[in-house]
Write a structure and sequence with these properties.
2 domains, 7 helices, alpha+beta, 8-stranded mixed beta sheet, 5-stranded mixed beta sheet
Amino acid sequence: MSILDNLKGAFVKISNLLRDGNCLELGDTTRFSNSCGDEVKKLDILSNDIMKEALLVHPDIRAIGSEEDEDIILTNNHNGKYFVSFDPLDGSSNIKFNITVGTIFCIFEYKNGKIESGRNIVMAGYVVYGFNTLLVTTTENGLDIYILNSDNVFIKIKDGYKMPISGNIYAINESNKYRWTSNKIQKYVDVLINDRKTVRWIGCLVTDAHRTLINGGVFAYPLDCKSPKGRLRLIYEAYPMAYIFRCAGGYSSNEKNSILDVEFPKDIHARSSLMLFSNKEYEQFCGITS
């Protein structure tokens, strides 16, 4: 079985937990916080266990890394070609309110025993747990999109998807604008407003990024004085989304460079700013001076 097959099995279990569980209980905060200092919900722990169970047994995987665990976990497959990182339940603060959440994953291939940057990624994807459970994965030709049917089987509904070259929606938390550390971000938002684009912000990376992929436009979580190194985790969130957007014909940035060119961090929970664009919006951003 492929790594993706194992992942699909995990996604089915998480989807069923969400469908059949009590969202008020699953969204309860435990007495623990994860290695990133975030409060941990019951469903965070359950989803993390499901993901680890699915991945640690695969013979091609040398190591895995989860947002919920302190360190990288080595498997018994010392000659495995791949490292898999994942956020088992993105947007878990939304669970109690029955709002869409997701799972993000990223598969890196070791080169000469190392992972140097996002250029080592060979596949990435995410799941949206909404009124449908939707799986999006990268391919050489774009994105494949699957829907989970009533028999718990993922059925492909789109092959080689490419995002629009532009869109009328931007996703950014404008309540943070007084903390943004770059004048370029404020100038860029002014450009988007002048273009009569509409802001939409759910506060779940998977959901906001997915809407941007389908609709076109831009997603941005810029640097601010509260999070001077960025808010999102590089290897669990920024890297995979950057790769997904590249495969879909889009772009990524940490406000200076492509996320995929950022050196793989020594701290596996290192954070980053993240901007995701369709083509026109990326050109507009690059044309703005600080």
